[in-house]
């Protein structure tokens, strides 16, 4: 059963990453008033702005990925009775 969960878990994880990116773009646009995320090497943006964007992106990505991965594991456990976390 664990072998069956791996490809499903991978797909769920990729979708979670895509969702996290979309959430971050919306949050950044509301907070900064800009649609563009500051590139790490940009001289046009301050170091504070670049680091804030990176920290926010990491926090959102981690939280969304955890929620999506957990929901996928719980759904799999509910359908199959197998706990992929063991």
Written description of the protein model:
It is a single chain. It is built from 2 helices and no strands. With 86 residues, the protein is mainly alpha-helical. Helix 1 (2-32) runs antiparallel to helix 2 (47-80). It is elongated, with a radius of gyration of 17 Å. The mean pLDDT is 89.
Could you list some keywords that capture this structure?
2 helices; mainly alpha; 86 residues; elongated
Secondary structure layout:
Layout: H1 2-32, H2 47-80
Helix pairs in contact: 1-2
Order of helices and strands: HH
Q: Which runs of at least 5 residues are low in confidence (pLDDT < 50)?
A: none
Number of helices: 2
General shape? elongated
Average predicted confidence as pLDDT: 89
Beta content comes to under 5%
The radius of gyration over CA amounts to 17 Å
* Computed structural class: mainly alpha
Range of helix content: over 70%
User: Main beta sheet, described?
Assistant: none
Distance between the termini: 11 Å
Number of strands: 0
Give a short summary of the structure.
The chain is mainly alpha-helical and 86 residues long. Helix content is 76%, strand content 0%.
